[in-house]
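Field log, afternoon session.

UNIT: design team B
ACTIVITY: writing a sequence onto a fixed backbone
BACKBONE:
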C-alpha cells in the first residue's frame, strides 16, 4: 500500500510541475521582468538536469541490452548460445601480458607458446547501431615470438548433450581486423578416450561470417560425448588487433533427403 501511495504522490507532483511550467511558458510574454528572470534561472537549472538525463538515457537505450541472447538462429535449431563474455560485464574485464591458459571469464581461455607475452585481452562495450551483442572482445598482439596462438571457447553441457552425427554445428561471428590474417576454427569433441576434430578456415570475403561443422564427417561416438570446445587459431598475429564483436553458436539436425 505504501508503494502505491508513493507512486500516486509522484504522479500528482509530476502533473502539478508540468502544469506549472506550461502556465509559466504561456504567461512569459506578459510576466514582469523580475519574475521572468527568476523563472529563467530555474528553467535553465532544470533544463541542465533534463538534458543530462535525456543524453544518458538515449545512449544507454540505444546500446544492445546487457544479457541479450538475441541473434538470428536457424529456424530448426535445437540449441543456441552466446557465451557470457559477449552477454554481460565480467568481474575482471581485461588481462595484460597474458600467460598461456589464462581465462577471461569462465568460458574463454587463451593458449600460446610465447617466451615473453605481449598480448592483451579486454572486454569492451559494443556501441555500434548494428551490434546485437552487448559486449565484444579485443585482443591486441604486439611482438609475438611463439608458434601458435589460439582462443578457446568451452561449449556448455547443453551444447553437446544429445549431440548426434546428424547435427550441423554453426558458429556466427563478427570480426574486425587491423590487418588481414588467417583464422581457423577447430571444433573439438571429446568422446571417451578420443577427441574428434573438424577444422574450417574462416572466410572473410563474406559480410556475415558463418562457419558450419557437419558432424556426418566425424567418427564421433554419440553415446560417449563428454565435452566440446572451439579453438580459434590465429596465424601470424604479430602487431595486430582483433576485435570479436559477437560470437554465437547454434546446432540443428541436418535436413533428411
Amino acid at each position: 500500500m505504501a508503494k502505491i501511495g508513493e507512486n500516486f504522490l509522484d504522479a500528482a507532483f509530476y502533473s502539478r510541475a508540468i502544469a506549472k511550467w506550461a502556465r509559466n511558458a504561456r504567461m512569459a510574454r506578459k510576466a514582469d521582468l523580475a519574475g521572468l528572470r527568476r523563472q529563467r534561472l530555474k528553467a535553465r537549472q532544470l533544463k541542465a538536469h533534463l538534458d543530462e538525463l535525456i543524453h544518458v538515457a538515449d545512449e544507454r537505450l540505444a546500446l544492445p541490452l546487457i544479457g541479450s541472447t538475441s541473434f538470428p538462429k536457424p529456424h530448426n535449431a535445437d540449441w543456441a548460445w552466446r557465451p557470457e563474455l559477449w552477454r554481460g560485464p565480467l568481474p575482471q574485464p581485461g588481462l595484460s601480458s597474458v600467460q598461456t591458459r589464462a581465462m577471461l571469464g569462465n568460458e574463454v581461455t587463451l593458449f600460446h607458446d610465447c617466451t615473453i607475452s605481449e598480448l592483451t585481452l579486454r572486454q569492451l562495450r559494443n556501441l555500434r547501431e548494428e551490434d546485437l551483442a552487448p559486449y565484444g572482445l579485443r585482443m591486441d598482439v604486439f611482438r609475438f615470438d611463439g608458434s601458435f596462438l589460439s582462443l578457446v571457447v568451452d561449449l556448455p553441457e547443453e551444447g553437446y548433450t544429445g549431440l548426434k552425427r546428424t547435427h550441423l554445428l554453426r558458429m556466427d561471428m563478427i570480426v574486425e581486423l587491423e590487418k588481414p590474417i588467417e583464422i581457423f576454427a577447430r571444433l573439438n569433441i571429446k568422446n571417451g578416450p578420443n577427441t574428434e576434430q573438424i577444422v574450417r578456415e574462416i572466410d572473410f570475403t563474406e559480410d556475415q561470417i558463418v562457419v558450419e561443422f557437419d558432424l556426418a564427417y566425424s567418427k564421433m561416438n554419440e553415446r560417449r560425448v563428454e565435452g566440446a570446445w572451439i579453438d580459434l587459431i590465429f596465424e601470424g598475429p604479430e602487431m595486430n588487433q582483433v576485435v570479436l564483436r559477437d560470437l554465437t553458436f547454434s546446432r540443428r539436425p541436418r535436413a533428411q533427403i
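LOG NOTE: The chain has three helices and 13 strands.
NEXT ACTIVITY: expression trials, pending approval
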